[in-house]
Amino acid sequence: MRASTIGLLGVGAWLGACTSEPLPGGSETGVPVTTGPVGSTSEDSATSVHSPETTATSEPAEGTATLEPPSTDDGTATDPDVYFDLGVVPDTPGSKCESGIDIVFVMDVSTSMGGLLAQMADEILEVDAAIEKLDLPTDTHYGLAVFVDDAALLNDGAPYDDAAALQADFIMWSNFTASNEQVGGGNSNYTWTENSIDALYLAATDFEWRPAESTTRIVIHTTDDTFWDGPTNGNGVPILHGYEETVEALQDATVRVYSFADQIGGACGCDDVTPGWSTPYLGMLPVPEATDGGVYDINQILGGTVSLADAINTAVEESYCDPYEPVG
Q1: H helices present in 101-242, as ranges
Q2: What is the tens place of the pLDDT at every residue in 294-321?
Q3: Local structure of residue 241 (DSSP, 8 states)
Q4: Nearest Cα to 187, choosing from 238, 228, 237, 151?
Q5: Cβ–Cβ contacts within 10 Å for residue 222, how many?
Q6: 3 state SS of 220
Q7: What are the respective helix, strand and coil percentages of the chain, to the nearest 5?
């Protein structure tokens, strides 16, 4: 996919030497803030190609290759200006990409995440308006999963009626973060480690994704800390799924994960929290890299150096109609 111009980070570039597994921390307290770009992305395809302009009398120089438009079955040439437009399926000459877009937000709603949830609520309509400008063949479908030590896929896994309905839930969960409770109630959240893994698994397997052949599937994931790796028990809550199992589920569902994650966290504000998001976890690729996605420094969003709406929209534009190429 194309390299981002607004802060998308090369996975593994934050703290390249750090490969430690997540460590449980203490109670939810303050969040360290750092800013500035900390990596680069890979680059593949160009955004668009147009055939060179020529006149009826012009001739190419000897030995110069010319760009010929592809031919149809009957031998006639297709219109090069149509074929080389942005959004054309390369192996189907003359056919524009007609993919829809499904986006599931997988959000850490622990106490330290209130600011980002509020920002998401403020900007989700801006995100939706930008996606509408892509002139998609169908309306974008949105879903939402939330997690602390437990996890839940909201709206019974069905897409929201519209972005306004999604915004209302973002507002509700932004307010919820002040409670320091689990998503399903019960015991309070006493640890920094959260349950990203079960939430990502739910998004991959239980959301009502439209067919992969005609849909670009994206997860926008946010967290500022490490994760429980199941099956285990975390802070009195059953953790059902493991890291490798969840990556496989995301890949099987052809879902790209774009994570907004931290670098340093934990109770002391000094633990490396990059494994699984921007550096390997127990020798396995980070989730975003393994699923052909990307990772952003969450502090650039919270610090205002990178726009959340712009980051999400860039992720969408880079994924749209781009062949899914998971790794590992």
Answers
A1: 114-132, 163-176, 196-206
A2: 999 999 999 999 999 999 999 999 999 9
A3: -
A4: 237
A5: 23
A6: strand
A7: 30, 20, 55
How far is it, in rounded angstroms, from Cα 3 to Cα 113?
27
Which residue type sits at 41? Answer: T
CB 117 within 8 A of CB 155: no
Question: What is the Cα 169 distance to its own chain's centre?
Answer: 19
| Domain range 100-319, CATH class | alpha beta
The residue with tokens 């593994």 is: 12
The pLDDT tens digits for 206-238 are: 999 999 999 999 999 999 999 999 999 999 999
The reported pTM is: 0.75
Compute how many other C-beta atoms are within 10 angstroms of the C-beta atom of residue 172: 14
Confidence of residue 185 (pLDDT cuts 50, 70, 90): confident
Question: Token digits for 327?
Answer: 């790794």
Nearest to 48 by CA among 76, 82, 20: 82
Report the mean per-residue pLDDT for the chain: 78
